[in-house]
Amino acid sequence: MPAILLTGRPGCGKTTLIRETIRALGVAAGGFYTEEVRAGGRRLGFDLVTLAGGRATLASVHSHSPLRVSKYGVEREALDGLGASAIRSAIAEASLIVVDEIGKMELYSEGFREAVLAALNSGKPVLGAIMLGPHPFADALKARRDVEVLTVTEENRSQLAPALRERLQRLLGSAPGG
User: Fold this and answer.
1) What does residue 83 show for φ and ψ, rounded to 5 degrees?
2) What is the pLDDT of residues 18-42, one digit of tens each?
3) Are 58 and 47 in contact (CB under 8 A)?
4) What is the C-alpha to C-alpha distance for residues 1 and 70, in angstroms, rounded to an integer?
5) DSSP state string for 23-62
6) 76 within a domain of the structure (yes/no)
7) Cα–Cα distance between 101 and 15 in angstroms, integer?
8) Domain enclosing residue 25, as ranges
9) pTM (2 d.p.)
């Protein structure tokens, strides 16, 4: 079953597009998205938020983790636990698997990478976001024949929304049990 992975520069609206698409489709979706944590107009980190309502710190400027992306310490336990678990639950229970995002922080987790591969091999549609820059794992996912990569920009985001919904509706209609 094909996957649609959105890519683009940070802040271009990938997560917003994913969340709006899920809402518009009204299907049983599972997985997670990432959300900025801000205070006083300053970004302090990112939370991992499951579509079932779970939340954990993914990365923070206050973290003492040795795993770093820029100024953020990455909490691998959140990915190994809540992140991978949300993907595996979506494989078992949801019509649409959501993985936002497959990026430098998330790729520190072997359990997360395994869950992403299981999602792509599950036969269910996957909607996600993937890092724009090069990375061996991300590049291998983007090169899969069952993955469609769409580049999101601030300029094309609103035009992509209806086309993305239409593609996913087609995929959901042909999915096992869809």
Assistant:
1) -65, -55
2) 999 999 999 999 999 999 999 999 9
3) yes
4) 35
5) HHHT--EEEEEEEEEEETTEEEEEEEEETTS-EEEEEETT
6) yes
7) 8
8) 3-172
9) 0.93
CB 13 within 8 A of CB 151: no
Among residues 174, 177, 127, the alpha carbon closest in space to that of 147 is found at 127
The answer to whether position 177 is within a domain reads: no
Strand order in the sheet with 147-151: 68-69, 72-74, 55-60, 42-50, 29-39, 96-102, 126-130, 3-7, 147-151
**And the tokens for 3?**
């996957």
User: Structure tokens of 74?
Assistant: 């990455």
For 151-160, how does the pLDDT look when each residue is reduced to its tens digit (9 = 90+)?
999 999 999 9
Pair 130, 141: CB distance under 8 Å: yes
Q: Indicate the number of domains in the chain.
A: 1
Q: Which residues pair with 3 in a beta bridge?
A: 126, 147
Mean predicted confidence (pLDDT) in 89-103: 97
DSSP code for 132: S
Structure-block tokens of residue 119: 């999602």
Both tokens assigned to 168: 């996913």
Q: How far apart are CA 14 and CA 5, in angstroms?
A: 10
